[in-house]
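## Example pair
The file below holds two records. Each record gives the amino-acid sequence first, followed by its structure token line.
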Amino acid sequence: MSDEMVDYKKNFSESTPVLDVRNLEVIYRTSEGVVQAVNDISFTIAEGETMGLVGETGAGKTTTAFSVIGLLPERTGRIERGEILYKGEDLLKKSEDEMRMIRGTCISMIFQDPMTALNPILTVGDQILESLEIHNIEGKSREALDARVDELLSTVGISPGRKIEYPHQFSGGMKQRIVIAIALACEPLLLIADEPTTALDVTIQAQVLVLMEQLKTKLGTSMIMISHDLGVVAKTCDKVAIMYAGEIVEYGTAEDIFERAAHHPYTDGLFRAIPKLDEDTVRLQPINGLMPDPSNLPQGCKFHPRCPQCMDECREGKPYLYDQDGHRILCNIFSEKEVNK
């Protein structure tokens, strides 16, 4: 890595957001046509802040993450418009060599499925070591790098003596810990966690979340937490973006999302689908219908075919953007004429 890259990671204004995504649009070209995966989304993440990215499967959460870290599929995925500013530098203007150096040291990712994220023919120690060797800025010796591998395994609660073992010799929860160790090996300033607890049982989920929070506090790392689980988001996030059909339909602080009465109808639907332990007789209320086909999105508000509060204007133009002190909701029911009725 060049000296310029070292400065790029360490020398920046504290007032500059770690990540500033502006008007991002992403498409996939397939044999069946163009898929509009992400449609004009914007958000910022400050130093040490965690943002939850919430929505159903197909909402565009993982595509957003892959766009940030520069891992969209080369032949089919393309960023049509927008900026992705990491500490004020537009990542979309970086070369592939520059992005290869940024990944791991500056921005890292915990991938969705620990069962497939690890290479089955390499020991877990070698997989952690690989990242350290690629980003060995200071030219540390092999002994020093091995000691760092031991330190990382101990940090995530795994005996360093197990570094010579292969992924199949570990449980799902331990594989997830190893994936976290790889992601944190070079102490990145931004960590993207894509459904880090989905494949784990409830007890291991809690342990992994506590571990991630401890490491985040220790390292001062900012984080994007991608999840379907509003309970996980409530425990871990400072701000929340609700995604639907490639758009952010609601965005605000965790307090805005979990304590205010005003919500997008889709957010209301997500809350109604959460089981409540103190209401045994109340049935869950699913959101009717399915996520629209991203290659054939409906006109107007993308949620209107499933929305219980749909109005005529929802079927046509772009919905009204309500913004109160940074709490943004993309919905016509919050337009001035409707609020004042």
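Second record, same layout:
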Amino acid sequence: MRTSFLTVSVLLHVAVLGIASVVAYGHGNARKPAQVQLQFSEEVPVQPPVERPVAPVTTEQRFEFVLPEIDVVPVLPEPEPDLAPVAELLTADVVPPPTAERVAPLPPPPAEVVPTPEPKPITPPPVQPSAHVDATPLVDRNQPPEYPSLARQLGQQGTVRIRVHLDDRGDVLDAEVAEPCAHAELNRAALRAVRRWKFAPATEDGVPIADSIVVPVVFLLTDA
């Protein structure tokens, strides 16, 4: 098959070269046509390798077992035990153990009586009285009550006691007439004045607290 393929290939080359020469000659080319030499070579067919039969290899192993010679030792019978000492022990008189004399237990020692100490009276610590300071009006900052003109003309005099409720800063929360005098105009004048006053707050152990005090307001006519 390879020979036919080479033949077809050579013929195709010859045809191509012939066509090229004709075309060159037809166009007035003065060159001579190229000479083509064809050489044929016969292809030697490749012979396939000859498979040679391989003789199977067999390995034979021989094992020989040699038993060692064993000396046979005769088994001797065991001697019978001597039971005479055991029989003597069994037939001997059994002596009971000596009885222990019963001893009465000793009485327990008398319990030691520990005297109970008398409880000491607990003295409570002395209660220190709290240092309470009442609130006081600030005289240098408070205006005295205005004396009513009608009461002055009528010659009215008297003392009005006003109860004042203060907070922990000394400001007046409320005020009321605790003990009035006989003249209503003087009572109203005293109440109006005290409600505008300023006070130093009351203290308890140095701590400012709210408090209520009674302030006397005196109306007295003097010869001016």
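Notes on the second record: The CA atoms of residues 108 and 114 lie 18 Å apart. Residues 1-41 form one domain.
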